[in-house]
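Table 4 source record.
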Amino acid sequence: QVQLVESGGGLVQAGGSLRLSCAAFGRTFGNYAMHWFRQAPGKEREFVAGISRGGTSTDYADSVKGRFTISRDNAKNMVYLEMNSLKPEDTAVYYCAGRGGVVRGLASSMDYWGEGTLVTVSS
């Protein structure tokens, strides 16, 4: 069992930066590929980024490539999402999620979810 708690969301102007954090509570954090998803009002939840169990492999949605960076610290049971050059269309609730096995950008394949943190980018 893994509990995930996100933090770091807030209001930022377009072009700005935010760093999201996800704290994992459980003894087997290193067994899970970790992901960030987001959901904007009226839209489906979408994949943002994923990182492998050891942190050596990452994957990103095309919309965030070159702007967002996912990382993890298995010693601290933490996963991060560094977001730069933010755009109004990045406004959404951001969710941390984990699954056993490899990174997979499919929400239905996740085993655990956090409650989400709101990111609002003003124009």
